[in-house]
Amino acid sequence: MLSRLALSAVRLGRPSPLAVSSTSSLARRCFASSNEAPPKKSEPSEATSSSNKLSFEEEAARQIRNAELIRDTRGKNEEFNKGPVTWVSLGLLAVAGAGLVMYFQSERANHRANLEAKRNRGLGVPKIGGPFTLVDTNGKRWTEEDLKGRWTLIYFGFTFCPDVCPDELDKMTEIVNTIDNTPDIGPVVTPLFISVDPMRDNAKIMGEYLAANAFHPRIVGLTGTTEEVHQVARAYRVYFSAGMPENPADDYLVDHTIIQYFMNPEGKFATYYGQTTTAQDAAKRLIQSIREYRADAPERERASLMAELDAAKAAASNPTAQGATPPPRQ
């Protein structure tokens, strides 16, 4: 009952010492007005009565202080929850922060993986391609410079080949058609058919062979002299050997490497595929090479610009190399 009185006093306002004394007197009167007489006890001494009275008042004051503390704490919590910053908002902020940290860590890992992949692409790349000069079916001269600015798919064979070369040219046709019909790429590939049989495959025969078969119309037939064919074969690491018969009029076969090279617009090796690769798999490989090359375009432009700046700095620091007169010695 005493606790209820103290709490009631707190709800009405902060009690004064007078309220505490009144509360004590009220409690004693309630006890004295009871119907049943209290059991008789030995009369306490004056010191004991004073001590009990003091303890009663201190307990009442302690109860009041606890009630005030509870009231103040509840008030502060209510004010905090009503403000712009609440426990719910703090929890949401912590969850969002953890999500951002995980996202940035994932992006950093992906960035490092991409850089590592780009570095690895430059390792172990075979040196394919080089200077050459050949002639097409129209008599036009082609060199390695004509391959720059376009994607080229190159196959080495000969027109008198009974089965392998026609099959590979059919595969080349299917691959080029697949790339042509890819929406984000289109007709960007120039297919080349280079003869390794210069004794029989002149420009006229190459033209008739390509026209007589249902190969892709963009296939360019190239041939040349024996020395020119050997030069381009060395540049592209292609082996060929003609089994010459005793009578040159007799038919003969040419043993050669069965491989097709895919060169990028810089005239550099991009990828390749062999005889056992299907047209679908080869087309996917070539399309991936084109997309990766396009994705790396900003980096190549930046590297080219840095190379030009380095060359300009080197030329500026060495005026003698530019033909300028060196300054006189002091």
From TrEMBL:
Positions of disulphide bridges? C161-C165
Lineage, top-rank taxon, reads Eukaryota
For this protein, the record's Pfam families field holds: SCO1-SenC (PF02630)
Q: Does the keyword Cell wall biogenesis/degradation apply?
A: no
> Sorted alphabetically, which keywords does the UniProt record give?
Copper, Disulfide bond, Metal-binding
**What molecular function terms (GO) are annotated for this protein?**
metal ion binding
Q: Where is the Thioredoxin domain?
A: 123-292
Entry-linked PROSITE patterns: THIOREDOXIN_2 (PS51352)
Q: Where is this region: Disordered?
A: 16-58, 309-330
Q: Where does Cu cation bind?
A: C161, C165, H256
Q: Please list the residue ranges that the record marks as compositionally biased, kind Polar residues.
A: 19-36, 45-54
Q: What is this protein called?
A: Metallochaperone Sco1
Source species taxonomy: Eukaryota, Filasterea, Capsaspora
